[in-house]
């Protein structure tokens, strides 16, 4: 352990200690499922798995880096839970333990303020090396959600977190679709309070959507004007990547998103996990 402490430094050690405590307290209902959903293989690094995950998240996920240490520990625990419940399938892409970690982190980021964070409606996440064709569509897809699962282009997913201030993040976009998809299909354990708050969100969203469909510019990308579902997913991207701009230009929408997701990206150190 002394070697590990030396390699990782004090803050990492604190995250580990909090993380370990959370694990001990955690309800291990999932154990009977673990044999079907084994944890991803280690990377071959000298670091223990939790420390490698912490390191990758700190390097590639600005949201995680902005959290307080105790929230980083909770985030890490949720990510590891999420990964174990999902089956990752790779298309034209070599499996790499960083891929499920970072994709799971996008889902956990979106739902960090919610009790129900596993997006249970979906068991499978398909990851393609780059943009891909779907049926008859002419344009290649960067991501989509269907009854079969959540689909992502790894190239575009990774780029979304490398350029975290441009309002484009396909990972958060598709996870936003996934979050509401299960509720729409009526086959999810989504909290009732989320459904109620989503109606409030819709009240704030529709006037902006109408304005955009009438040709007005907005802080949101024009793709949001496609329909309400795309508006929702794009507003989530903007909420996390351009929070100050969204709060300034569309305070009602920003407030509704804060209420709905139970978090404020402008005050990440104060996030209270329920
Ligand atoms: Zn979409």
Automatic annotation (TrEMBL):
InterPro entries referenced in this protein's UniProt entry, alphabetically: MetalloPept_cat_dom_sf (IPR024079), MtfA_fam (IPR010384), MtfA_N (IPR042252)
Domain of life: Bacteria
Source lineage: Bacteria, Pseudomonadati, Bacteroidota, Chitinophagia, Chitinophagales
PANTHER family in UniProt: MTFA PEPTIDASE, PROTEIN MTFA
Name recorded for this polypeptide: Zinc-dependent peptidase
CDD domains to which the protein is assigned, alphabetical: Peptidase_M90-like
Pfam families the record matches: Peptidase_M90 (PF06167)
């Amino acid at each position: 352990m002394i070697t590990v402490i030396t390699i990782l430094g004090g803050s990492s050690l604190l995250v580990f200690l909090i993380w370990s405590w959370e694990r001990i307290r955690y309800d291990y209902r999932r154990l009977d499922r673990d044999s079907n959903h084994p944890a991803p293989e280690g990377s071959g690094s000298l670091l223990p798995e939790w420390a490698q995950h912490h390191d990758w998240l700190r390097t590639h996920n600005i949201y995680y880096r902005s959290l307080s240490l105790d929230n980083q520990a909770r985030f890490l625990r949720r990510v590891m839970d999420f990964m174990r419940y999902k089956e990752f399938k790779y298309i034209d892409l070599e499996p790499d333990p960083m891929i499920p970690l970072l994709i799971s982190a996008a889902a956990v980021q979106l739902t960090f303020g919610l009790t129900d964070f596993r997006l249970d409606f979906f068991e499978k996440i398909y990851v393609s090396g780059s943009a891909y064709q779907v049926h008859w569509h002419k344009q290649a897809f960067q991501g989509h959600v269907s009854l079969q699962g959540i689909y992502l282009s790894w190239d575009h997913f990774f780029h979304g977190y490398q350029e975290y201030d441009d309002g484009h993040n396909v990972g958060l976009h598709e996870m936003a679709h996934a979050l509401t998809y299960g509720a729409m299909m009526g086959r999810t354990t989504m909290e009732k309070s989320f459904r109620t708050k989503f109606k409030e969100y819709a009240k704030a969203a529709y006037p902006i959507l109408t304005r955009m469909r009438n040709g007005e510019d907005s802080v949101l990308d024009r793709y949001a004007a496609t329909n309400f579902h795309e508006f929702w997913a794009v507003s989530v991207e903007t909420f996390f990547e351009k929070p100050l701009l969204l709060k300034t230009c569309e305070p009602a929408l920003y407030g509704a998103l804060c209420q709905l997701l139970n978090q404020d990206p402008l005050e990440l150190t104060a996030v209270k996990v329920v």
